[in-house]
């Protein structure tokens, strides 16, 4: 397989509204991100996935774009964006922009024109019907909104302020590619593509993800924009199986570098249920089965994969699958070792590297996220108690990932000189913050730093195949093997001691969150023990 820069990279996701506030208005901004590049360079990451910073009414915190080629005032201006690109590139850090082209904001000029003038060319950039069908929005309620002026309904799989684009329209597609080239010409490092597997939808047949023309559109996009450049492209594809992931990421496909698959995230809720019917106990055997399928199908084929626990839509991994009490630090290191030593490009979500946790939300008034607020309103209307609703939101709501980054133990956790206006700082910031992490050689930060560094140099991480070992349910152990090297990775994904035995000897410790036994033939793994060794 031809090596590309993103095979050895670790990507860091920044959610701009809550990363760092430079102008003291309580909201994160581009200058704030630029001020933290030295910290990110110290962590060792070589690319930042920047969640949307474009002009937006912020109905969905920027995933509702009103102008793709302008910067939202709350984040700064285009000069600030160019400074960030320049300063990041100086540090060997690429900026991966968030491409949201399944839908725009209803305040985008295209939709304003489409709505006000039914015979405009822009009308067909969106999806209009005389009558709605039973398609549901992911943010609760119908996926159709009536436009009084024309009497027609337009499709929106997210909020009604996020009308879906009609990818069957070739003029629209070309306008998207032109916009992508505008950003490529600015020297970005690639694109993360928001719900990209929805652009082939056929609403009249109820087809949403994985529509029949999806891969044709992506190949066309590749040829018309990033395909000619050395860029990382990662699709957010909730509907991707490993087989489909291979389709996108096989270099011969000329589609994407990789995708985000979500089968493992599906373990956070009951089977075939909405996310709010949560499961807070991790089914480790199910997780092993999912990763084994990814690693062997994609590992052996020409495909490539992403590796993640967290992003801005997901609960903090320590709060749902790790430990938040005395074992918080150890479980964070264990989960990092488990994930980062598999085959793929790892993604670190802001705050994950210092073990940030969910926020103790008490009432709906503390929330910001439209998805949670719409769910709460619909669930209450259906008679669900506020207690049950808050239990779900407290565990799995998206705001948990969006509270301000915790930089130090001063007021507002060093995120801002002002009270944070849109989400509160987690009260545990006095203990969990970057300053404490950097001062403690045994912190989670240095485990992540070591894993990022390892990926840059260890070819076995890129080329090695993957063999899952048959172990106790809550022990996740695998071997990475190249023709002349083999590495064992062992993780106790539980709060209890587990037995482990392996017929082999090691002569070199790669990384560990505990003392590594010399004799592997009969080992008692304490809670969250994790280690990797090179096998003789
Ligand atoms: O997320 C896609 C998406 O559907 C998620 O919102 C996820 O399905 C949901 O949170 C789980 O219930 C992308 C962005 O990552 C998300 O932030 C946006 O809200 C959404 O698309 C619309 O752009
Ligand atoms: Ca600000």
In short:
This protein is of the alpha/beta class and 536 residues long. The chain has 15 helices and 20 strands.
From the structure above, extract its key features:
536 residues; alpha/beta; TIM Barrel; Oligo-1,6-glucosidase, domain 2; 4 domains; 8-stranded parallel β-sheet; 5-stranded antiparallel β-sheet; globular; binds 1-O-alpha-D-glucopyranosyl-D-fructose; binds calcium ion
Walkthrough of the structure:
It contains 15 helices and 20 strands. The chain has helices spanning 30-34, 37-43, 78-90, 109-116, 170-184, 214-224, 242-249, 284-300, 317-320, 328-340, 370-381, 386-396, 434-439, 444-457, 459-463; strands at 11-14, 47-50, 54-55, 67-71, 94-99, 128-129, 144-146, 153-155, 190-193, 232-236, 258-260, 306-307, 345-349, 465-468, 475-482, 485-492, 498-500, 506-512, 523-525, 530-535. Strand 7 and strand 8 form a beta hairpin. Helix 7 packs parallel to helix 8 (284-300), helix 10 (328-340) runs parallel beside helix 14 and helix 11 runs antiparallel to helix 12. The chain starts with 10 loop residues before the first strand and ends with a strand. The mean pLDDT is 97. The structure holds 1-O-alpha-D-glucopyranosyl-D-fructose and calcium ion.
